[in-house]
Amino acid sequence: xxxxxxxxxxxxNKKLKYNAVVDRNCYTRYRTIMLKNDLFLRAAxxxxxxxxxxxxxxxxxxxxxxxxxxxxxxxxxKELVETPELACEVTIQPVDELGxxxxxxxxxxxxxxxxxxxxxxxxPGKGPFFPTTIKSAHDIEQLLSGQEAADxxxxxxxxxxxxxxELNGRVPLIGFAGAPFTILCYMLEGQGSKTFxxxxxxxxxxxxxAHKLLQKITDTTIAYLQTQVAAGADLIxxxxxxxxxxxxxxxxxxxxxxxxxxxxxxxxxxxxLFAKGAWHSLPQIAAANANVxxxxxxxxxxxxxKLLGDKQVLQGNLDPCALYADAATVRSMTTTMLDKxxxxxxxxxxxxxxxxxxxxxxxxxxxTVKQYRY
Length: 374
Prior knowledge:
Layout: E1 5-8, E2 15-18, H1 24-34, H2 39-44, H3 65-72, H4 77-81, H5 84-98, E3 103-104, H6 111-116, E4 121-123, E5 127-129, H7 137-141, H8 146-150, H9 154-167, E6 173-178, H10 180-189, H11 197-205, H12 207-230, E7 235-240, H13 248-254, H14 256-265, E8 271-275, H15 282-286, E9 292-294, H16 301-308, E10 313-318, H17 327-341, E11 345-349, H18 359-371
Parallel strand pairs: 3-6, 6-7, 7-8, 8-9, 9-10, 10-11
Antiparallel strand pairs: 1-2, 4-5
Helix pairs in contact: 5-9, 10-11, 10-12, 11-12, 12-14, 17-18
C-alpha cells in the first residue's frame, strides 16, 4: 500500500509506520486499549449494552455555531474537507458539544468520483455540481479506479489519523463512503435530481455498461475504505442515499451486489449499510455482510424487528423533522422509538440532521438516549 500513517504502538515506544497488512494487528490493539467509550462498537458487534449508543448523521455541520463560524472564515466547503486539521476540528465539535458516542470523519461521498477523474463543485444554496459527467463508454474507460484512484485521497487519511490522535480514545471514529449506485447517479446526472432519470436510463438501455461503471466505483471504494481502516476508522458506514429511486429488482441487480462486495472486503471493523428507501430489500441488506442495518424514518421499528429478528443490529430512525418539536415531544418520541427497537440498536435519525434544526432539540434527543436503560 503506497499510502501510510504513523502511530505509537502500545507494545513499545518506537514510532511505527503501518499499512493495511503488516501492522494492522498492532493498530487494532491500540484502538481497543485506548478506547474509553466503547458502547458504540459493542452495539455494532451485537454485544450486550446497558443502553443504545447515539450519534447523528451530519452531526458535524451547520447545527453547530462553532462550525458555522469556522466555515464562514474559509473559501468554501471543499477547503474544509481537504484540510486535515480543519476536518479534524469539525469532526470533534459534536463530541464536545453534544456528547455523542461516536464521531464521524468530516468528508463527502463525492471525493470518490473526484478521485476517479470527475471533479465536483459545492455551490452554496444549490449543492454539488459536476462540470463534467459520464456520457459514453469512452468516458468510463478514461476513469481512474482501484488503489490508483484511492491514493489521491491522502487528505482524508490524514484527517482520520489526526482525528484519531486528537480524540485520544474518547469515542470511536466512523469512516464512510457513498454506495456505488449513488455515486453513479452523480457521475451521470452531474447534480442532485428528483428522478435520476439519466442514471436509470443507463441501467435500462445498457446494463452491461452500467455494471462496468459500478464495478470501477466499487473497486475504488474498497481501496478507499480499506485505507480508511488502516488510518484509524473503527467502523465503516456505506450510504446509498438514492437507493429509493430503484425498484426492488433494480436495487438487487445494480446496487446490492456492489454494497455486498464492499462489506465483504472490510474484515477488521464492523460495517453499517444504509440504503435509504430500500425498505423492500431489508433481509437482503442484512445478509450482505452487514453488521448494522441503517433505517430511514418511514420504516416501522416493530415491523422491521419482526422481519429481521431481535439479534440484528439496527440503526435509526427518528424522523429528522421530529426535532422541530418542543422538548417534551422530542423526549417522548425518542423514548417510544427506543422502546420499539429494544436491544441491539444504535440510536440515530432516519437521515442526516437538517441545518435549521434547533441545537437544543438535538441535545434533548441525545440526552434522552443517554439516560435510557434497557
